[in-house]
């Protein structure tokens, strides 16, 4: 079984989750296969438009709801006032469940200036039992500074794009200092060619693992929770099979040094405070 990482609110999260940015009609067997492969943490979002299929896959798998850690995220249209109440109700209806384990603000959308009021609604949703834990996604430290100053319940997770090419070292340190777990989307670098990197290939050969497994182990060593996407059952199994070896400090540094130093993706969804 996959080890769990402690969250600041007393709950815990399986250290590797399944990313599910896939169409609804394709997702049902993916979820069934992932649960069969051993995934107990599934990461979806309202924006992916696949929550019905995710819910169907979970039911088809036959697993108990309490054995599964389910994350969803709410988009801009559900920010501000108490719109997140209706947003989460809709997610729960689509998923066919009465709570999520983790609810995230999908993007800070600072131009709208609504993420703090959205957070107050998220806190209420915890009180109501509809979200066990709450967190954010794609927030910068500046956004978190503001949120932490106003929050009663602290965000347990910030899910950001992170891979050996985009290590966000300072941001991960900020999270650590504030008790926030870093989750990583596109941890395998998606289509960037990262998995063909010779440094990763050399380390992979040492352990008889694949470059993808080396990347996921690097996340684990750094206390990061990656949510790799895969539709392939063999690769799903592979992506959980990273708990029987450890990387040396030098190897961890060599992988972190793959950071291109390129400016983080400047996104209108995150610029501003
Ligand atoms: P596939 O679904 O065919 O396995 P990311 O999560 O960084 O966005 O990466 C997702 C991509 O990485 C998908 O195209 C997925 O393809 C591929 N992928 C997932 N796991 C592995 C793996 N263990 N080895 C190689 N490619 C993988």
Would you kindly provide a written description of the structure presented here, covering whatever features stand out?
- With 273 residues, the chain is α/β, with parallel strands linked by helices.
- The protein contains ten helices and ten strands.
- The chain has helices spanning 24-37, 51-61, 83-95, 115-127, 141-150, 169-177, 198-207, 211-221, 233-240, 249-256, and strands at residues 4-6, 12-14, 18-19, 41-43, 69-74, 100-105, 131-137, 157-161, 181-185, 225-226.
- The strands form two sheets. It has an eight-stranded parallel β-sheet. The chain has a two-stranded antiparallel sheet with strand order 1-2.
- Helix 6 (169-177) links the parallel strand 8 and strand 9 (181-185).
- The model has no long low-confidence stretch (mean pLDDT 95).
- Bound molecules: adenosine-2'-5'-diphosphate.
- Adenosine-2'-5'-diphosphate (A2P) binds next to helix 9.
- Adenosine-2'-5'-diphosphate is lined by residues 19, 186-190, 195, 210, 212, 228-232, 235, 238-239.
């Amino acid at each position: 079984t996959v080890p769990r990482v402690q969250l600041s609110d007393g709950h815990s999260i399986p250290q590797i989750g399944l990313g599910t940015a896939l169409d609804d009609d394709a997702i049902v067997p993916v979820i069934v296969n992932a649960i069969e492969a051993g995934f107990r943490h599934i990461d979806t979002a309202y924006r992916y438009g696949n929550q019905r299929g995710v819910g169907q896959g979970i039911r088809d798998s036959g697993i108990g709801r309490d054995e599964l850690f389910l994350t969803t995220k709410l988009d801009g249209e559900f920010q501000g006032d108490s719109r997140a109440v209706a947003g989460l109700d809709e997610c729960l209806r689509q998923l066919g469940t009465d709570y999520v384990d983790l609810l995230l603000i999908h993007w800070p959308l600072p131009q709208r200036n609504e993420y703090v009021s959205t957070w107050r609604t998220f806190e209420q949703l915890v009180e109501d039992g509809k979200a066990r834990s709450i967190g954010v996604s794609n927030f910068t430290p500046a956004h978190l500074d503001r949120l932490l100053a106003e929050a009663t319940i602290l965000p347990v997770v910030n899910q950001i794009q992170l891979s050996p090419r985009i290590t966000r070292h300072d941001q991960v340190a900020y999270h650590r200092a504030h008790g926030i777990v870093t989750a990583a989307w596109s941890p395998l670098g998606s289509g960037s060619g990262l998995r063909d990197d010779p440094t990763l290939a050399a380390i992979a050969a040492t352990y008889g693992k694949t470059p993808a497994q080396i990347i996921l182990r690097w996340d684990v060593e750094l206390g990061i929770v990656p949510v790799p996407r895969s539709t392939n059952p063999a690769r799903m199994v592979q992506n959980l099979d990273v708990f029987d070896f450890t990387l040396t400090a030098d190897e961890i540094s060599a992988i972190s040094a793959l950071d291109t130093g390129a400016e983080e993706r400047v996104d209108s969804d995150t610029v501003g405070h």
